[in-house]
Write a structure and sequence with these properties.
It comes from Natronobacterium texcoconense. This is DUF2127 domain-containing protein. By secondary structure, this protein is an all-alpha fold. The chain is about 75% helix and about 0% strand. The longest helix is centred in the last third of the chain and has 21 residues.
Length: about 140
């Protein structure tokens, strides 16, 4: 179920990245109306959604390098979010000096890191393996 929910989120992010990016801006910035987004920012969000869908929808766990990279990114984001926040701001916005971060940006970034770790773990288990575990759990209940 969690895998399906994350795939649905990824598909939404691919199809409609603007609402996702704008929601993140409202969550993380005191002045989201003053952002000067770079032209490729929405494509970055689409790429994130594509990675989620690709990793989670595979029937076998054959994307180990991408999965490991996503999990590593998540671990770094959980451990030291500030450099990643600053890097992502420079990549996404033209006017980084004008951005006013809300106090909960670091905890929100850590939660995003947990999400990346979760996707990495789920994708490394493979779809068939997790489905068979669900069947075994249902049979024993």
């Amino acid at each position: 179920m969690l895998r399906s929910l994350l795939i649905a989120f990824g598909l939404f992010e691919i199809a409609k990245p603007r609402p996702v990016v704008e929601a993140c801006e409202r969550i993380g910035l005191e002045n989201p109306e003053n952002v000067d987004r770079r032209s490729w920012a929405l494509w970055g969000a689409r790429l994130e959604g594509l990675v989620f869908v690709w990793l989670l929808a595979r029937r076998e766990s054959g994307a180990r390098p991408v999965s490991a990279l996503l999990a590593l990114s998540g671990a770094v984001l959980v451990a030291v979010p500030q450099p990643i926040i600053e890097l992502s701001q420079r990549l996404v916005y033209e006017n980084t000096a004008d951005l006013e971060l809300k106090s909960w940006v670091k905890p929100a970034a850590r939660l995003l890191g947990v999400l990346y770790l979760l996707v990495g773990v789920l994708s490394s288990r493979g779809r068939d393996e997790s489905e068979s575990e669900a069947v075994e759990t249902a049979e024993t209940a």
